[in-house]
Amino acid sequence: MVWAFLLACAPEPEITKVEPLDLPADRSESGVPVGVQTIEWQGLSVEVWYPAADSTRGAPEQVDLLDWVPPSVLEQLDGLVLPLLATSAVRDAEVRFAEEPFPVVLFSHGLGGMRVQSVDLSTHLASRGYVVVATEHVGRSVGDLLPCLFQPPVEGCELSFDDPAIADLGLLIDWAESAADDGFLAGTFDMERIGVFGHSAGGDSTVTYGDIDERIDAIFPMSGREVVTRDLPVVFIAGECDGAVPAESTAAAAATSGAPYVEVAGAGHLAFSNLCDLDLTALAAPLVGRDDVNPIFLDMITTLGTDGCPPTPPIVEGCTTYADPDETARPIRQVLTAHFDIHLRGQEADLVEGWPALSLTP
């Protein structure tokens, strides 16, 4: 009788609500709500974007780009103001549970970048049913680069000639493997389906890491030029007006790899990121002519940080103006999502159908 009473009074087990991924047919369109969390793990700040529950409420996060500027640089740039970067992710939103777990996609940033530099693409993939994971690569992040702008360099100047992303991407997989069984994402994603995408130097890291880690099932290098040597699904994509990594070099890497190559009409180097929002032209103006600033380094940073950002004129012959990054963002989202849907979800998709801003070379 006592056991019967205890069983009758015991709380009912918590039932996890399953919410289907009801996604628009147009892969450039966002899908479900997106959540974001930052996890400190083994010395890394790991940014995680994930599909969130339909009950998600609250204002989408705005990223303060000043958080990535080292104090030593802020001291040199008294009164520096940077715009807030609007995102579609809600901080600490409840995780979504769907009919099947989500594939995992890693992101690698380029020289002078940061883990949130392509947040539009990261949140888009999360809205389409992926868990996206990124971190800073010490030795090529914006926080390592900016202190080197001054002469002598201020505290924090730490550029690396080796590729720091390779070890970081391995650590991100280690984190994901631990989080798959324990933590706020436990049971929601599938470590048997892993992709990597990256931009510029991060595009090269994407190829290098995909070549050496057989757990990677598909990669998507953006403005990269490394050749794939493993039998691995890959699409190379570049901007027609990219002056930092010429489209021809990305096309050559694709041809040597025997992989599809997609070119985005009118796009510059930063079309695959949100870094045009930094407005580096305005940021650099007060630094011109300062005795404590390295003019060569300033010119390099300004050129790299404005390539693809109207109204800066392109340096590529035949390009008179950059396409609006808001206009090129949609076809880029289409190709990125279609590629991973094909190779991580087993779905049928057309990479470029219906997008006149794109050209595809098999």
What does this structure look like?
With 362 residues, the protein is α/β, with parallel strands linked by helices. The protein has a single domain (31-226, 270-327), classed as Rossmann fold. It contains ten helices and twelve strands. A seven-stranded mixed sheet has the order 5-1-2-7-6-8-9, with helices on both faces. The protein has a three-stranded mixed sheet with strand order 10-11-12. The chain has a two-stranded antiparallel ribbon with strand order 3-4. α3 (119-127) packs across α10 (325-344) and α5 crosses α6.
Task: Walk me through the topology.
Layout: H1 2-9, E1 34-41, E2 44-51, E3 62-64, H2 71-76, E4 84-86, E5 89-91, E6 102-108, H3 119-127, E7 131-134, H4 142-145, H5 165-179, E8 189-199, H6 201-212, E9 218-222, E10 236-239, H7 247-257, E11 261-264, H8 280-284, H9 295-306, H10 325-344, E12 358-361
Parallel strand pairs: 1-5, 6-7, 6-8, 8-9, 10-11
Antiparallel strand pairs: 1-2, 2-7, 3-4, 11-12
Helix pairs in contact: 3-10, 5-6
Q: What name does CATH use for the topology?
A: Rossmann fold
CATH architecture: 3-Layer(aba) Sandwich
Number-wise, the strands total 12
Helix content: 25-40%
Quick structural summary:
With 362 residues, this protein is of the alpha/beta class.
Keywords summarizing the entry:
362 residues; alpha/beta; Rossmann fold; 7-stranded mixed beta sheet; 3-stranded mixed beta sheet; globular; disordered N terminus
